[in-house]
Amino acid sequence: MESASAFIDAKINELGDWRGKTLAKVREVIHKADPEIVEEWKWMGTPVFSHGGIVCTGETYKSVFKMTFAKGAALEDPAGLFNSSLDGNVRRAIDIHEGEKINEAALKALIRAAVALNLKGKSKPQTAQKS
């Protein structure tokens, strides 16, 4: 069975246009923001980036590349990157169109915040037991 990373590589090559380049760039920024990100391939062909739960997806459509953050509504977005799915109670998305530049510093901060939110409460400190 092929790895999710191999499927994502194939998707980038298969697209062969600005959407593939955008997916490759976003993937690079995600891994720079958090080297422990795990790549997954879900829902019949969607790249998913996880750490302690889903951080975001990288969806390619005809005229847009969409990054959907699973818990985006709970994240601070001081740079105003979220520009899609703004009405939902849970998710938020960033639509990137051909020719648009990615604010890497702001995207890294958003990814780190999403990971921190996923990990919050997951690791409870162990209390030493006295005998």
Q: What can you see in these coordinates?
A:
The chain has a single domain (4-119), classed as Aspartate Aminotransferase, domain 1. It is an alpha+beta fold. Strands 1-2-3-4-5 form a five-stranded antiparallel beta sheet. The protein has helices spanning 4-15, 18-33, 104-119, and strands at residues 38-42, 46-50, 54-60, 65-69, 92-96. The longest helix has 16 residues, at 18-33.
Topology:
Blueprint: H1 4-15, H2 18-33, E1 38-42, E2 46-50, E3 54-60, E4 65-69, E5 92-96, H3 104-119
Antiparallel strand pairs: 1-2, 2-3, 3-4, 4-5
- Our count of domains comes out at 1
- The CATH class turns out to be Alpha Beta
What spatial order of strands do you see in the largest sheet? Answer: 1-2-3-4-5
Shape: globular
Main sheet characteristics: 5 strands, antiparallel
- The class by helix and strand makeup works out as alpha+beta
As residue ranges, the low-confidence spans are none
CATH architecture descriptor name:
Alpha-Beta Complex
What order do the helices and strands follow? HHEEEEEH
Overall mean pLDDT = 92
Give a count of the beta strands, DSSP E runs of length 2 or more: 5
Share of residues in strands:
15-25%
Q: Report the CATH topology name.
A: Aspartate Aminotransferase, domain 1
Name the helicity range.
Answer: 25-40%
The number of helical segments is 3
Computed CA radius of gyration, to the nearest angstrom: 16 Å
